[in-house]
Amino acid sequence: MADTRAVPATTPLVIRRLRNVVGYDPRMAAAVVVTVGALVVAPFVIYPVFLMKALCFALFACAFNLMLGFSGLLSFGHAAFFGSASYITAYALKNWGVTTEIGILLGAATGAGLGLVFGYIAIRRQGIYFAMITLALSQMIFFIALQAPFTGGEDGIQAVPRGSLLGVFDVSDNMRMYYVVLVICLFGLFAVWRTVHSPFGQVLRAIRENEPRAVSLGYRASRYKLWAFVISAGLSGLAGGTKALVVQLASLTDVNWHMSGEVVLMTLLGGMGTVFGPAVGAVIVITLQNYLTAFESFVPITIGAIFVVCVLAFRRGVVGEILHVFRTRAGKSKITKDAED
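^ that's the sequence the OP posted. Answer follows.
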């Protein structure tokens, strides 16, 4: 949500307008610059494929957070958008020979299209009924992926070619592919941020806080929630299609209900309702899964234990708690300063 606090008159006019209109904060801008700089040099230190996978799931978690954190809708069906996009992108690249960007766009379009259908069916319900409808629809997609001839059944679609970007740039090399994935995920994260810090995002938050009041003010809540569902599904499809390119595989794991559960875990762990908190949660989960592979049976136990600790000690999530501490200290400092004045 945009920061609507008053900006001192001494602040330059451009910065005042940016902060009041889109929630611009110089400290946030500095943090973003540092983070992007670290991501640019990261593949020289860390295995690029791991980083690409983490970026894809970070985008997936932030897209899901549009539904849970900012619309108040718990969906158990987001694996359908992620996995369907993965299959469509993989199939288009391997069997149709399309270029990389066309394959990814097809995946995103598939996610958005399914989101429109799912949302139209489920959006009229709330709470547990909404969650169960999305889960049921997602399971339908899972069984289609299991039985359809073009999906490869339990084997999935393997050896997916990465193709060439714009028909010119070969992205088979991991380093080149990393920077393509980085640009895609940064674009997706910017889309999430801009959606949240827009009038549309303000209305979503109003609907989440008090839907009857938002309706009484003249907002068509069902329409806003439907479009939030479509945007979230489209960005989830973008993440799924990109992930299929990274690991060169589309499988039933991508569309299984466990994937929907994982993205809920990532969102809650990082910080539900924070713009980029779910990305941190996704990185934590993917890191644990990657580095605990040798102890396969301990992966769910470890992640479960961390989740329990987070729920008990960090109820706002990792990023949510950090932001809460900073805001509390800032509030106390302001009170002290006002008292001294």
